[in-house]
From TrEMBL:
Binding site for ATP: 635
Topology versus the membrane: Single-pass membrane protein
Listed Pfam families: LRR_1, LRR_8, LRRNT_2, Pkinase
The family this protein is said to belong to: Belongs to the protein kinase superfamily. Ser/Thr protein kinase family.
Family annotation (SUPFAM superfamilies): L domain-like, Protein kinase-like (PK-like), RNI-like
One example GO MF annotation: receptor serine/threonine kinase binding
EC number of the protein: 2.7.11.1
Keyword annotations: ATP-binding, Cell membrane, Glycoprotein, Kinase, Leucine-rich repeat, Membrane, Nucleotide-binding, Phosphoprotein, Repeat, Serine/threonine-protein kinase, Signal, Transferase, Transmembrane, Transmembrane helix
Broad EC category: transferase
Protein name stated in the entry: non-specific serine/threonine protein kinase
InterPro entries listed in its UniProt record: Kinase-like_dom_sf, Leu-rich_rpt, Leu-rich_rpt_typical-subtyp, LRR_dom_sf, LRR_N_plant-typ, Plant_LRR-RLKs, Prot_kinase_dom, Protein_kinase_ATP_BS
Amino acid sequence: MQTLHTLILVMFILCSSLGSILAQTGPTNDLQNLLEAKKSFVTNPGEDDPLPQWNSVNINYCSWTGVTCEDTGLFRVVALNLSGLGLTGSISPSFGRLANLQMLALASCRLTGPVPSQLGQLARVQSLILQDNNLEGPIPAELANCSDLTVFTAAANRLNGTIPAELGRLENLEILNLASNGLSGEIPSQLGEMSQLEYLNLMENKLQGLVPKSLTNLKNLQTLDLSANNLTGEIPEEIWNMSQLLDLALANNGFSGSLPKSMCNCHQLKILDLADNQLSGSIPSSYGSLKGLEQFMLYNNSLQGSLPDSLSNLKNITRINLSHNHLNGPIPPWLGKLSQLGELKLSSNQFDGSLPAELFNCTKLLVLSLDGNFLNGTIPQEIGNLGALNVLNLDKNQFSGSLPQGIGKLSKLYELRVSRNSLVGEIPLEIGQLQDLQSALDLSYNNFTGDVPSTIGTLTKLETLDLSHNQLTGEVPGAVGDMKSLGYLNLSFNNFKGKLKKQFSRWPADSFIGNTDNKQQGLSPRSVVTISAISALAAIALMILVIALFFKQRHDFFKKVRDGSTAYSSSSSSSSQATHKPLFRTGASSKSDIKWDDIMDATRNLSEEFMIGSGGSGKIYKAELENGETVAVKKILWKDDLMSNKSFSREVKTLGRIKHRHLVKLMGYCSSKSEGLNLLIYEYMENGSVWDWFHDEKPEVEKKKKVLDWEARLRIAVGLAQGVEYLHHDCVPPILHRDIKSSNVLLDSNMEAHLGDFGLAKVLTENYDTNTESNTWFAGSYGYIAPEYAYSLKATEKSDVYSMGIVLMEIVSGKMPTESVFGAEMNMVRWVETHLEMAGSAREKLIDPKLKPLMPFEEEASYKVLEIALQCTKTSPQERPSSRQACDSLLHVFNNRTAGYKKL
């Protein structure tokens, strides 16, 4: 009996061993293919191997990280889930030889290179998930051979080329997400053959042409997002026959014509976003049949006519934004029936008449923006019923009467604007009850009379107070001058009398101009200007002292540069004529080579009227060339005795070869010894810089700020991070920017972020002394400089990351890093850190009031961006993430930004 037991035990061990052997040397060769695939992954120095088990010693591959084998005993790999493991390198063609693979997930890594065509050999694959990487090149047409594929997502990469028409053969595909790439060409009509498709997202690409009518054959489609492309033509009428459609987003394209009138079958539609197009005509009454609609976005079009009464049927609507159109007629009373309405924006239209009393039944309203219309009558007391209101903007209308006392009931108000109306009477004392008022209290350009209520001085969060151009009298309460939160005060052109208290001395004289009977106690307006000037000069002197200390430590280094620079002869030094030195024949980037004379003719010899900016490295000009091309030209002074022209040329030529979708292209440069100038030629960024959008108060910039919403800001943050990541991790050798700031983050016509001036600080440092047009070229700008630079004078990747973190804070808060609101004892980093730990309204101070109110998921995303920014601005460089890690974190926020209302 014992012998029998022994025999059974031996057989059991042999069977177990056989299973292990099959796992190791099975007919599928999966082990060999996995080991081969790992060779394409790269472990950077100083980083841990994310796949330590994947080696030839541990050949039980079914136990490896991310590997799933089928449970039939054949030990074949059926799933690989390596998402979020921080893999670097490329996707190996060996994955295509895993014959039984049903899922390949490589999302949220740092993979580069192409999508291998060999993946098309995966006959059984059902899910191919490649989003959130840096993959480049075209989408291989061979993927159409994956006939079982149900999910294909490659969003947030750098894929280019056209969408293969062959993908239309994927009859089982349910989800196709190719958003946020560089795909071009037209949308293939063959995509309309994917009969099982439920989700199609092609947003944020460079697609053009018409929307193919064949897409309307997708009877199961629930989400169609084609926004932020270059699509044109009319929206197909047939699109409204897609009975399962929940989310239709066609915003930010070039669609024209009228809105489709037939809506008979889209009864389940929840989101309709056709904003930022060229649509005309009226809003069809048939849209009232969309009874499930929650978001109705048609802003920035050319729509006309009145709002149809049928829209009163939209009982589930939460957001209506019809701003910046040509709509007219009265504000309809039926809006009061929309009990779920949280946002109503009808700004910049031609609405007239008075405010209907029914409107104040919308007790869930967070935003009411009716500015820029022809509304008249009085503002009724019932406005106090809107207790949830965050933003009330009635600017630029024809309202008359007094500001009602009921305004004091709006206890959650962040922003109150009623300027440029015909309001009269006294400012109500109840205004002091608005303790959450933060962004602005703007009562300017009305006919208010009487004293300024002292209760305004209790608004301790208020940042902007504008009471100018009224008929206010009496003395200005000293409590107003004590408001430490105020960053802007305007009391000009009233009838104030008496002496201003000394606490008003911190404001410029322009804040009080036009009050002839008004004098400051002990301080005339001229004294205010004098004190302000002295303070400014003292600050400048302090900065000069710090800079002098910097230069003193580096004096020996620059002496060597000066001594050595004469060893080179400039290629243009033998002639007094200007020479043109193209970095490369620009091909698609430029219609022809650009010569010195072209720039001089286009800018009238660099006339000030063409200057669009200036910085530490020189002035920048806009040049519209005769060939129709527009470029930006940076002027840098020639310093022949200090600069090695060959070295300068070599460095600039290197920068010119760097190309990335989020870096400003350096197209070439011209030099003239006789003029004493070098001109760097960059691609022109139509929408200026992030700094312009947040801090420039020019009227044309102020108008644009209205459309810089949270979605746009988040895209800018991600684009900035991707640009920095490319410089640090994908350039050989790595390139330090040295001067990341909001004015160097430029925006193209599609509001895509492009980081400019990369590497330029190094070029100027090595080739110039302090005699440039400005001697502030050293690494960094005030407010953005990492703390360790003060003692090391050494720029590193981590100091770039610090500067990037400051810009992220700027994007969310809308504040400059040097604003006085932070106080003498606190900087921007500490201010964000302190408020992020708070709750409620204190925490909400971190968010730019111009963004408010945000949807809950948007607010959560904004706080996550600030958390990433705090990591980037840690005092110790070692504690900061790399730019790649920061970029990965931001991409995660971006790709989950719509969680809660959008599928996937």
